[in-house]
Design a protein that fits this description.
With 696 residues, the protein is mainly beta. The strands form 10 sheets. Strands 15, 17, 18, 20, 23 and 25 form a 6-stranded antiparallel beta sheet that branches. Strands 26, 28, 29, 31, 34 and 36 form a 6-stranded antiparallel beta sheet that branches. Strands 37, 39, 40, 42, 45 and 47 form a 6-stranded antiparallel beta sheet that branches. The longest helix is centred in the N-terminal third of the chain and has 19 residues, at 3-21. The radius of gyration is 41 Å and the shape is elongated. The N and C termini lie far apart (115 Å). 33% of the residues are buried.
Amino acid sequence: MKNIINKYLIAGLAFLAVLGCKEDERDFSYAQYGEGPSELALLFDVYQDNSGTVKMIPTAQGADSFTISFGDSANSEESLAAGETTSFTYPEGVYQVKLTAHGYDGKTAEKTLELVVSFIAPQNLMVTIENSTSISRLVTVTATADFGINFDVYFGEPGFPDPLSANMGDSVEYTYVAPGTYTITVVAMSAAVETTTYTVDFEVTEVLMPLTAAPTPTAAPASVISIYSDAYTGVPLSEVNPGWGQTTTLTEVAIEGNNTWLYENLNYTGIVTSYTSPTDLSAMSHVHFDYWTPESAVATTALGLKLVNTTIGGEDLEFVNNMTPGEWVGVDIPLTAYEAVNLSQISQLLFDTGTGFDGTVFIDNLYFYQDSPSSPPTAAPTPTHAPGTVISLYSDAYTNISLAEINPGWGQTTVLTEVQIAGNNTWKYENLNFSGIVSDYGNPTDLTSMTHLHFDFWTPQTADPVTVLGMKLVNTNIGSEDLEFAPNVSQGTWMSVDIPLADYSTNLSAVSQFIWDTAAGFDGTVFIDNLYFYALAATEPTTAAPTPTVAAANVISLYSDAYTNIGLSEVNPNWGQSTGLTQVQIAGNNTWKYEALNFSGIVSDYGNPTNLSSMTHLHFDYWTPDMTILGMKLVNTNITQEDIEFAPALSQGTWVSVEIPLANYAVDLTAISQFIWDSAAGPDGTVFIDNLYFHN
């Protein structure tokens, strides 16, 4: 019998021995998951003696027994324990053989296979042999034939004379020790004595480059100094693989669109950042790179990275442990291993194979990083709230109110210093349990016009992190206080906190103390910046525009509840603008609301244009949450003459009255029919308009 069947029989005997001798040691732990048997297979092995006898070898994951229904007219079937085989003798014909696997958990799974029994030798044998495109030296053989039941494959590698077997139409796989040309023989069998054979010389190949890109790095960009990676902005490199006598050649290739260095014949190779401005790595903790080397004679078997300080002298070389071929491998070397070199001025990096064979290696994501920085590598985010909406205690972005005391001696363990982070003044609290800030007891701070408290914080991941952080507001005039906590405290990154002041039960009209608190949390280190209060900008006015005071006799009004308006034939006509216009009620006052305003027209009467020659000024009131530019164009369509004038710099969140002298317009005012709002290509925004009129 063939080798593959012998292996199944041996496994079956071993399994039965375990059942008989050590019943109490069987491991059924996976049965609790209730997945049932899987990966069912039934191998046919036909006797080549014209008898029609077929041996059947069932296998499955998670099965302790099988039932085979032979598919004959008598509906014969047989039950087998795992590891057992059976035989059945068929007359010529086509049969549907059903395999039922019974799991340890009581569940079953079924698979039906077609079996063709014929005493004619296999005909029309078709064999497909393929190299794997992703795994070196892995070959797959598939065979089909009329009247065939199963096939054997002899792979022709010395030391492996026995075949691998499969049912007709299925595949077998084999991994060769080395690439090369091998004689592969496929023997197809039916129930007849005669077999059909196919032989071919087949070239087994090696996968010589990765088919997928290196893994995407996960280190935060702020904690990285990158030499080569599409994932980061790298430091400038003055030389790559310079001519230092090496055998190495370097090309840049794209793997799944990812730039990757390909080194061939690598014995050593250099990378130079800058001799005049070397790279300071003293704040970094590790060097990282990803490598891929083939599973063949051109593999790189040893790989190290040398760091060189050419300014004061000194170098050190560290090697990768146990090179793994045929897959991307990420390497992380602690910089503490580089004891013989001063890391503050590194200008050269060298890949080195030591005395290893010159080979091929792909390199990507070469960078240095800080695994757990003790201080933030970047400054806190720059605030975006308008200064007019802010009361600031501590921020370089605003004018801060005066502080009488910072971290006063109230029995805390906290130590406070001011440090520079990327040129930005920042408070560093160490051993923080609580810490006070006092504005002015005699003139406390009125926060009633503010809506939110804001601060940015950074705490380290490992060395003394803060896990809980809150701010208490105290009104010492009436003895009112409340404490609110940041909703999340993440380590190793700047976190921006915005707490609604409505959450505080404190009387906010006279706050003089602002107290950090860790709520009995572990005393730790935290960096604080941009501590301020702000008023969240409203999106629409809550009060109506100011009531005009100009006498009606001196006014030509286009839009105002205070006057009788002239007739308008078109408002926001479709001239290709993005602008949307609705009329809304603001405190009972009709108001135009323009949204996404780039421009918008108003037409009085083309046949009877408006004579503004007796007027001296254009007036309108606006309120905007976000616009920065707004102008009004006057158009005399009779003589095709126009001009535009802009309001002074816009203010947000308040009604503003605009008066533009008509003398500023270089247009004949005797026949104006179009009045056009224009944002002068500024960002499209929202603006509320009322009291649009001309007066003298």
